[in-house]
Amino acid sequence: ENFKPAQVLGSLKWPDNHLTTNRKLHFSIAEDDDDDVNFEIDSLTGDLFLSKELDYETASHFLLQVIIKDYNSNPPQNNTVFVSVDVEDQNDHSPYFQDAFVVIGVEENVPVGTLVYTFNAKDGDGSFVNSKIQYSLEMSNMSENLFLIHPSYGTLTTAFPLDREITRSVILTVSAADQATNLTDRRGDSLAAKIVILDINDNSPSFTSLPLSYVMEDVEVGFLVHRIMAKDPDEGRNGQVTYHILSGNENKAFVLDKITGLLTTAQLLDREIQERYSLTVMALDDGSPALSATQVLTVIILDVNDETPIFLKQLYETAVRENQDPGAFVIKVEAVDRDAGLNSLLRYEILPGTGYEKFKMNLDSGELVTSASLDRETQEFFSIKGSPSRSSTAELYLTVLDENDHNPLFAKTQYQISVREDLEEGSAILDLFASDEDDGLNGEVMYSLIDDTFGAFTIDSVTGSIFTTKALDRETKSQYTFRAVASDCSINLPRSTTVMTVLIQDVNDNVPKFEQSYYKASVWEGQSPKTDIIQVFATDLDSGLNGETEYSILSGNENAAFVIDSARGILETNTALDHEDTSSYREMSSSHRLVLLASDRGTPSLNSTATVLITVLDVNDNPPIFSSLEYHIHVKESIPIGSHVTEVSANDCDEGTNGEITYAIISGNDRGHFRLDWKTGSVDLMKTLDYEDTMKFTLIIQAT
């Protein structure tokens, strides 16, 4: 079919037995033949050739009716010959897919060998080998090919079990190639196929939270006890987990949020009623059918000291003879406590009261004995309390006769308190109390102070309240130590003392102060940044943060030439300085004044300032510069020796000896016609000039 037009296919020849010399024949294709449009015949020679290209896929066979007219006969005779033409197929069509990309879904639980998809490529060639299609498969980034394709039918099947939780999707390249005999003539096409592994509910939820939780028994209703967590690797509804309590919550003590897994209390807990719960919890996914897992969650209720010790009797009555030696047995009391552990251990004590020091209670057994001879001042009511935070009391009545045999007693032998130094005069700082278990005047307590309080404190003799009598200043005195005395009103004046220590707390009432209000310093110009210039110090009498000082530059540093260490107060260069640019900072112009600020870290912060004059010292870093690079002088040849010719001048920006200039002629004065004053730069004539001899002198003068 790839035969080109105008090429001879063959020739029609007259049979040999009919040949005669000079036979005149005429060849033609019958006009009513539909195939004559594709072929032509040479009317004289009988050569048959194409008139246009053939297409095997359009027509693979032609039958031509050729008419041969013989003019040698009279009249001329017509003969008819049928010519059969078979068209051979050429591989001129490529296989092709309808789509360049397809997406295919397959469930992950299908068995190996399941048909996933059938690929169907078309080929326009007519013959079998040229249109026969063979399929192949390529899979990228996979160690093993999960799918197989039938080379002839294009059916895609599973080659291994699929698991969406391992592989969610696969990209395949499917190729189709025809089977032309000549390998170099074979044609092909390909498409990309995305295989999406569809999830099925093949994974049960698995718990990730611990199966044990603790909660105090006194938590409020709604308290978060535990968060139950489970994971399900499935997708969508198959992986959505809800939580449920199957058993162990018959008394409705807990409620479980089925979405979040938060387990909270639904009612008040009581360890003394139930000390642990075993809840069977289920995690259920939303697949169809749904899968689940269970866990036994143990919730242990921790004891809180919420049970009050109970005495076996509410009132104990007994009698004891007065004047017995210490250690006499009085009574044994008993109590019980329903709490557990340390909370259930009882400790027996006597509540403070007048005369309670006359008795001694065995902390563990509850036996009460006397610790001194009894008198009437001993209170008739005693309390016995539980430990540590809950107690029960019982009463004990004793009758004794009074004597003034008790001293007033302070609750503590020493007190230490802290007060701010800005406390107003007359402020109460502490209420002292001393108890005297005697009765009447024997039990009335009077208070007084001994030792020097430096006029800072006084005490109310009746109430025991201590007041300030003047303004306090921690920086003057930071601590006071004195004794307070409690005495009763009897003739014998029994008394007791306690030591008072008053610590004065600092208030940020002192401003940081520089050692000097005015500093002078100098630095050489051209020094590298971070060169130390001067270290300033400021002191703050306050303590703590109130006394910590930070340094900064308040003004005069608009060009950021300097920087100060905020902690150490070291003033440094921030850039290289130039003496010729600014010789003194903070002296003449306010824009160059350095005002340093010292601030403490109190609240509010206090600060003070100091002035620093920084002189930049000169370095010989500038060469002299002549006011003019060339001097043109015209003189008459007749001027006398010693005449002033001219004066050169140079300027040096440096200062002092660095800026002092000397002049010298370094060339052009070989014959000594001129003299140069090395200080002033004045040039004078030293020899007679002769125009005819020398019309022009060029002197090279150096300024140093």
Helix amount: under 10%
Name the average pLDDT: 84
Assign the CATH class of the largest domain.
Mainly Beta
Q: At CATH's second level, what is the architecture of the largest domain?
A: Sandwich
Apparent shape: flat
* Total E-strand runs: 55
Can you tell me about this structure?
It is a single chain. This protein is mostly beta strands and 704 residues long. It folds into 7 domains: 7-86, Cadherins (Immunoglobulin-like, Sandwich), CATH 2.60.40.60; 95-198, Cadherins (Immunoglobulin-like), CATH 2.60.40; 206-302, Cadherins (Immunoglobulin-like, Sandwich); 310-401, Cadherins (Immunoglobulin-like, Sandwich); 409-505, Cadherins (Immunoglobulin-like, Sandwich), CATH 2.60.40.60; 513-617, Immunoglobulin-like; 622-703, Cadherins (Immunoglobulin-like, Sandwich), CATH 2.60.40.60. Strands 40, 43, 46, 47 and 48 form a 5-stranded mixed β-sheet that branches. It is flat, with a radius of gyration of 61 Å. The two termini are 104 Å apart. Residues 1-97, 106-207, 215-311, 312-410, 411-514, 515-626, 627-704 form the Cadherin domain.
